[in-house]
Amino acid sequence: MTTPAPAEEHQIPKINRDLLAPLVTTHWSYFLLVGALACLVAAGAGAWSYQFRTGIGRTNLHPPVFWGVYIASFIFWVGASHSGTFISGVLRLTKAEWRRPITRIAELMTSISLMIATLFVFYHLGRVWRWYYLIPYPNQREIWPNFRSPLMWDAMAVFTYATASTIYLYLPLIPDFALMRDRIEGWRKPLYRALSLGWQGTQQQWQVLETAMRIITPLIVMVMVSVHSIVGWDFGVSLVPAWHSTIFAPYFVVGAVHSGVGLVVIGMYVLRKIYHLEDYIGREHFDKMGKLLLLTTLGLAYLYFAELLTIWYGNIPDHRWVVDALLTGAFAGPFWFMVGCIYVIPLITLTLPAFRHWPLGVMFIGLLINIGMYIERVLLIVPPLAYPRLPFNWDSYAPSWVEMTIVVGSLALAVLLYVLAVKFVPIISIWEEKEGLVHGGRQQ
Amino acid sequence: MKLKRRTFIKALGLAAAGSFLPGCEREVHHLVPYVLPDDEIVPGVADWYASTCRECQAGCGVVVRVMEGRAKKIEGNSEHPLNQGKLCAKGQAALQGLYNPDRIREPLRRPEREGRRPFEPLAWEEALTQLTERLRKVQGPVIMISRPLSGTLAELVSTFMRAIDGELYFYEPGADLPLRAASRAAFGMDAWPHIDLAGSDYVLSFGAPFLEGWLSPVSLGIAYGQMRQGRPLTRGRFVQVEPRLSLTGASADRWIPIRPGTAGLLAMGIGQILLAERPSALPETQRRTYERIYGDIPLDRIAALTDIPREELVRTAREFGSAGAPLAIGGGAACAHTNATESLAAIQGLNVVTGRIGRPGGLRFYEPALFSGTQSIPWLTERSLGELAQRALSVVLLYDSNPLHTAPPSIPLRRLFEQADFVASFSPFMDDSTSAADLILPDHSPLESWGDHVQPTSFPTAIVSLSQPVVTPLYDTRAVGDTFLSLAHRLGLSGFPRETFHAFLQDRWRRLLSEQAGTHGEEAFAAAWAHHVQQGGWWGRPGRELTVTAAPPPLPHVPATFDGDDQNWPLYFHPYPSPSLGQGRGANLPWLQELPDALTSAMWGTWAEINPHTAQAHGIRQGDIVRIVSRYGSIEVPALYYPAIRPDVIAVPMGQGHQEYGRYASRRGVNPQSILAPLFDHRTGVLASAATRVRIEATGRPGRPVLLEPSALDPGHELLTIGKARSSP
Amino acid sequence: MSEHKEEPQDGRPYKWEMVIDLDRCTGCEACVVACHAENNIRISGEQEAADGRAINWIRIERYWEGEYPNVKARFMPVLCQHCGNAPCEPVCPVYASYHTPDGLNAQVYNRCIGVRYCGNNCPYTVRQFNWFDPHWDAPLAEQLNPDVTVRQNGIMEKCTFCVQRIRQGKEQAEKEGRRVRDGEVVPACVQSCPTSALLFGDRNDPTSRVSQSAASDRGFHLLEELGTHPAITYLKRLP
Ligand SMILES: Nc1nc2c(c(=O)[nH]1)N[C@H]1C(S)=C(S)[C@@H](COP(=O)(O)OP(=O)(O)OC[C@H]3O[C@@H](n4cnc5c(=O)[nH]c(N)nc54)[C@H](O)[C@@H]3O)O[C@H]1N2
Ligand code: SF4
Ligand code: SF4
Ligand code: SF4
Ligand code: SF4
Ligand code: SF4
Fold first, then answer.
1. How far is ligand 6, taken at its centre, from the CA of residue A112, in Å?
2. Which of A315, B243, B450, C177 is 20 to 30 Å from the Cα of B198, by its Cα?
3. How many domains does chain C have?
4. Residue C124 belongs to some domain of the structure
5. How far is the CA of C187 from the centre of ligand 5 (A)?
6. How far is A416 from A404, CA to CA, in rounded Å?
7. Which of A392, A395, A396 would best serve as a mutation to test chain B binding (most B beta carbons within 10 A)?
8. Which CATH number belongs to the domain containing residue C214 in this structure?
9. CA-based nearest residue to B397, from B584, B149, B586, B157
10. Which residues share a beta bridge with B423?
């Protein structure tokens, strides 16, 4: 790292002070929040243990709808995990300077979202106590898992992605851990010492770190694209009407980025507000994120339109039943609500430059998009299953209280983990901010 | 008394063991001891015991798979001429009668009449003594109401009742007595004819539910398969005439939704056309009588009354007349009116007009099987039940018959139980009627008992089926035959030389086999007996066909009468026996409760079938609770849109609505009988169950019908055709 | 595993198939109870049935055609089609749904972990799931067939073509050094069907009754266009 110019030198203590502040000072309301979230998590855990003890029948699933909100949540959370990789990976790759205050916020989301997503796989299994059947190891049953099954692709992709994104989160944290090792006393100090791997900030260390980042960044972007493509193929390669479609993989990736970016916007807004980070996360960041959301809105709308048009025009009855149910039938209510949330309202608002400069507004759009995308995930799963090819079996589904409690508890767990993480890692990459100072990319 | 088990087994071969003989009951064992297994048990190996299904009057032959002393499955006996290895849903579910958790497990008595004190158990000795005492000092008439019995048990019970000066009646709800009466009227034959469905190429059925619980469902099902696809070049056609498309009608090529109560009229109209257009094979005089009676009402009037366009009537008549082997049958909906016998006689007459009596594919009569000596035992109808209830009775004996559930409360039947000094029931289950008894001496399950059964309908082969115990009795119950023998001995009656029903049965079979097969001598009998037990009964060579000689003229037409005028009671009420639960007998078997109704896909309850147009006109949505009101009461049940029912008819299946019938049936659904008017087929007295008119009211409350076809509840789903579900035409 | 013999002595494998004649089927549902009795299918009870979870390995689908008064009901027995190219098989991550050498789609209960992908991907909606542990009010369980497992909470099940009867038939034939005779192995549903709408046998035996019936010009496969190669041939109802 080059030495900062004298004009910027005085800012470095401020950066240190500002960005370490959340780790060292805690408002009483923080404990209140943690307590509230912990209660919700406990409720979710209770619901899961009830389901575990009595049977997966505590869900409202039944033939022909064998998958419901657990799988929808799985897709949603895998999608949400795309925030980190997309924002930080793609922006790093394109050397977009404005990424600096956002990457950490996003990367943390990736890791936490993936954990939550994985949990949903476990909630979903009929015999979760036999989950290890999915692990390829020489076993007494003398069989390997079936690698032809998209679910195995999934399991491996998610595992790879989780590993890669943890490394990806960790690498740029090392210099910050070193900083905290030096600045923060107390129980965290030995932890930071261990985690900083003896970082001294030598020239050689910086070079190694930068090389590592250069290698892993494009890799993680590739993994990200493939992970959600594979999740898309869970559906695309099946025979279920309106799942069986080539568009699912790109659609899933874009949809994931859509909700992921939306989540980052929410995170940005909230952290900025609470920790007074206006100096770091400016209105122009919201503007840029708004533009990004506009891009994903248009991309997603395009894919969605292409999908619906081909089904509608092709007019194959099995597929049309599903589309009709969405557009005008049993699922029309949630469908049009979803369309409003993820396409129409973002499109109307985010095209206005003034709106994009209004953090609260952009945050609100991010929220809408995530609500909409969650509904979209449910609608992606349920209606095609509800209209199987032999119409005698047509049925519907709405989640049970156990399912909803688990879904809410898991959301609370995600937030809780995030809230706890804020006390453990700087929410904005300190060294990257400083680097930005030097590169002159940081705007005041 | 105790037989040497091993030698006995050797003699029986496949057949069940003497160790089941009543009187040698052992503790029910829960674990099969492998070290010293019981004689009849070879661990891990299945035995097959032949027996007879007692779930309906048909009496199909069954084989029961038994492993380690437990009955595992009931299958059709492929040797049995009647059902040829096939079995209906009810027959298979009989296993759940044996292992039903709600069987009465020991004798019970009710301490006092009035107080609602529950039943309390007592020992068999005591129970038998109590009943014996009652029968010794009777003050008035002793009657017995039993489900129709057959063979040896019928003989035993009727002999017993005669010996104590009692009256024995058979009662079966929805009995096809009008059919027998019509046969008597049209052909002079007091029997249910053999319907040669398999040989017919055009079946015109007036409501006959021959693919459901009618006459002999399995053998008719077999014949139906033959009629459709069993012959290389002929596929029989099938037209069903009834106000509501029944499960049987669903298989028809054409459905004619006739106005209720007018089936006989349609038959007359068709008869007119046949007589006019085709030179008849009838002798001149007979022909003239038929012309006179069928021609009583002009065709246009018939078309108007039946609500069938004249063209369709003519077309049907011509199709029928030009068929090679046309067959006209009537039953079910056509039997459920006040003019049932006349209507059926007119329908049966069509076979006379086309000359199909005693011909292949027509109605045929065969010499009845031996010792079917039950002909003389009177049947109760709902009308005579009502009359019986007016009498002051001393002792009422009840066996496996539940009139309090199967007859409408508009017939004051409860009196019969309340006024009698003493009521004893031999039923194996607590049901609405048995729960009104003072003493219960529970019967074994048929799978634990010996018995025989004489083929009740005319059939080409004379059949007497045998039942044998296939498992050790589970509980402290007793075969009703043994109970009667004990009573006879205690009362000191003469003519009951045997100790056990098994011995009594063998005595009769000694006679049968010596008459039929020339089996004489004890050794020959033992071998023959073992053979027949193993085979599942005795069947002769194809029997002698009886020729119908003097067919009397058909009965003149009588219009059906209904309760309620058509202004205030605009709809015809059409209760029908559930294809799986019948009139309720099957309701305690969870397999049958959970068996989806083939047409509505409904399970575990009652529903009303209503034409969608009628429903919409009343603001009744699919699945909503509808109130059906007659002059005798009202019921509330979920409505299901049923596209194959006349708009002026509302149908409700029978079989549910028990007050008392075990955990699976009690207080489930509603009993449509409860709003029926006391109208009867005026010739036989059988309840005219479709003679009540009703009105309906929307309650606006959603019901909760349990359906296998969930989309049926969603009005957004159109009615779909199978064409969408298959690829090639 | 090596002793696991699927081929009869003459080396020609079996190919178990069924023919369902819709022109004979009357919707009597004898087959449904037969299957329950033979295969230890749970009693779901009213609540489970209302929740759409009643388990039937064979069901009679009824389709209405036309409008009153020209309305017709059509019955179609639907059970696992034992697809030659079964969509339920590749998607199972643990090989719980797999194909046997004699053409059955087998469900290995103790492998299944209940991800239920197979249920989604079966175009015939015949896969049934155990949402809870089964329950029989005593002594109803005395009836259970010892040749067939009772399926516990969390696993998928469906029609097996009564594989226990097939096995028994094959063992017997093997002992006697011959092929299984036509009609020797009969699934419970086929055995009970009064109208003989159901036929079962070896399609690799050109003289078997199934082979001959399946050649009928009334024959079609359910959802043939999906290329699942069902082992069940339906014969069209007339007219
Ligand atoms: N060819 C060959 N023969 C052998 C052996 C061998 O390895 N090869 N091994 C020998 C040995 S070591 C043994 S221990 C024996 C075992 O021989 P068996 O004791 O005959 O054992 P299984 O074949 O397992 O049959 C047990 C029976 O119990 C039934 N069953 C299962 N659970 C229950 C239950 O809860 N209640 C009841 N009533 N019945 C139940 C099963 O359906 C089955 O019919 O075989 C011996 N014979
Ligand atoms: S028709 Fe069914 S219920 Fe009647 S005797 Fe035969 S198998 Fe039993
Ligand atoms: S019918 Fe369904 S369950 Fe059966 S083999 Fe085909 S895809 Fe699999
Ligand atoms: S439910 Fe069982 S059989 Fe089906 S895919 Fe999952 S693990 Fe395989
Ligand atoms: S073949 Fe066997 S398992 Fe399959 S539906 Fe028929 S009876 Fe049930
Ligand atoms: S038993 Fe035969 S006729 Fe009856 S529903 Fe089943 S397939 Fe159809």
1. 55
2. B243
3. 1
4. yes
5. 6
6. 18
7. A392
8. 3.30.70.20
9. B157
10. B396
**Could you tell me if residue C193 is inside a domain?**
yes
Q: How many angstroms separate the CA atoms of B272 and B362, rounded?
A: 20
Element of type H or E holding B424: strand B422-425
Nearest to C198 by CA among C20, C55, C2: C20
Is any ligand 1 atom within 6 A of the Cβ of residue C146? yes
For residue B228, give the ligand nearest its CA.
Answer: 6
ipTM of the complex: 0.86
| ∠ Cα B715 B720 B723 (to 5°) | 170
Its pTM stands at 0.88
The reported pLDDT for the residue numbered B231 is 92
**pLDDT tens sequence across B464-488:** 999 999 999 999 999 999 999 999 9
- Left (φ > 0), alpha (ψ -120 to 50) or beta: where does A33 sit? alpha
In a domain, C223, yes or no: yes
Mutate which of B29, B32, B65, B68 for ligand 1? The one with the most ligand atoms within 8 Å of its CB, which is B68
What pLDDT is attached to residue A347? Answer: 94
Which DSSP category does B654 fall into?
-
| Burial tier of B587 (Cβ tally within 10 Å: 0-12, 13-18, 19+) | buried
Tell whether A197 is covered by a domain.
Answer: no
Q: Does the beta carbon of C107 lie inside 6 Å of ligand 3?
A: no
Range of the domain at A280: 52-134+144-170+217-440
User: Which one-letter DSSP state was computed for residue C185?
Assistant: S
Stated as kind and residue range, the H or E segment containing A369 is helix A359-386
**Structural tokens at position B496:** 């009951």
> Are B724 and A330 a contacting pair at CB < 8 A?
no
Name the phi and psi angles at B10, rounded to 5: -55, -40
Q: Do B717 and A393 touch (CB under 8 A)?
A: no
Nearest residue to C141 (alpha-carbon basis) of B71, B486, A301: B71
Note whether residue A25 is domain-resident.
no
CB contact under 8 A, B643 and C188: no
Of B88, B228, B644, the CB nearest to C30: B88
Residues 77-136 of C with CB under 8 A from B: none
Rounded to a whole number of angstroms, the distance from the CA of A83 to the nearest CA of chain C is 27
Cα–Cα distance between B431 and B671 in angstroms, integer? 14
- Judged by CB atoms closer than 8 Å, whether chains meet at B644 and C43 is answered as no
Q: Is the pLDDT of residue B372 over 60?
A: no
Yes or no: say if B291 and B370 are a contact pair by the CB < 8 Å rule.
no
CB C44 within 8 A of CB C237: no
- Domain assignment present for A177: no
Taking residue B273's Cβ as centre, other Cβ atoms within 10 Å add up to 20
Task: Give backbone dihedrals phi and psi of B298, rounded to 5 degrees, phi first.
Answer: -65, 155
**Nearest CB partner across the interface for A67, out of C52, C95, C120:** C120
User: CATH code at A71?
Assistant: 1.20.1630.10
C10 located within any domain: no
Q: Which residues of A touch B720 (CB under 8 A)?
A: 391-392
Instruction: Kindly indicate the confidence band of residue A88, based on its pLDDT and cuts at 50, 70 and 90.
Output: confident
* Mean pLDDT for chain A overall: 89
Where do runs of H (alpha helix) occur along chain C? Answer: 30-39, 45-50, 117-121, 163-175, 188-192, 209-214
In Å, the largest CA–CA distance within chain B is: 81
Structure token digits, residue B590: 């969870």
Pick from B28, B510, B403, B454: which is nearest to B216 by CA?
B454
Distance separating alpha carbons of residues B656 and B273, to the nearest angstrom: 43
Q: How far is the CA of C36 from the centre of ligand 5 (A)?
A: 9
| Domains contained in chain A, number | 1
C224: helix, strand or coil = helix
CB C151 near ligand 3, within 6 Å: no
CA nearest to A136 within chain C: C94
Residue A43 lies in a domain: no
The winner for highest mean pLDDT among A392-396, B72-76, B150-154, B361-365 is B72-76
How remote is the CA of residue A149 from the centroid of ligand 4, in Å? 10
